[in-house]
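== Folding task for one protein ==

=== Format: two labelled lines per protein ===

==== Paired sequence and structure tokens ====
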Amino acid sequence: MVLITLKKGEEPLFLFEAPAQTPLTELVPQLAKLQNYRLRLKRLIEGTDDLVEYGPSKPEDQQGYDEDQLEALSKDKPVPAKKEIVRDGMTITINPDPTGRRIGEAPSEQISEVIRKTLNDAKACLSADLIKSGKPLEASIIDEALDHIRGAITIAWPMGLPEWEPVKDILDDKEDLSGTQASKEVIEPETASIWWAGKELQRDKKLADYVGKNEKTKIIAKIQKKGQGPPLREAPVNEQTQKDMMAFYYRKQEENKKLVENDDDDYVNSAWANSKGLKSAFSGVGDVSWKAR
């Protein structure tokens, strides 16, 4: 299996395995769909973070502040602290949403911790550590993460989330991303392009036509949207390495300045300029000082 490290720009996305004889008509859409699936999981994690903190969304026509909230804001009153109450036999956390988009009624801290732990586990699917560990990404891994988040949310809201809740749309795969920043990140599988070694991999060929038939080959490829052209070449060194190099040359420059400023006969005080140094070393008195310290 050819091991592909897929990147977008300079950002590493995930590892993917594919047989060398895979037609690119299959491989390119597969990579684009998997990246879009990662983005969907990322949106779900971000949305669930808000859901756990401030509760479900208000209907769109009710979002914002009411008169009492606006009056409190105008008087710079302190934001009320979170508190737990019991309602209809269930413990909920009252935590007003500063944006006014959510109702401000979150699950109990105990249930919230369960959901947050599930979200942290799901973030591992998006982490660069997955690449460092050499583990290829599969759709089944993201499926499992979504199912776990869905289960954790069901514990908190057994009757289900309201129809207007964005998290529900993500879970049901019914999002409308038109006009949002998230829509700009989505890559259309039908028109996506993959670049490797400065070449666009043409869909009418196979992967082996570019990388050879060796199934142990490893490549770094980049995914692009239609019409974006070839990806920009990456810098030969990363930002941190460049900073380290600049710091090193600065230290060398300062050392050279000090050497220039020293007197020409300053070397006579050095240990290597002592004409009796060898004799003192053999007699064992090389480091003896007769001056008071």
Remarks:
- The two ends are 71 Å apart (CA to CA).
- The chain is about 40% helix and 15% strand.
- The chain has a mean pLDDT of 86.
- Residues 13 and 35 are 8 Å apart (CA to CA).
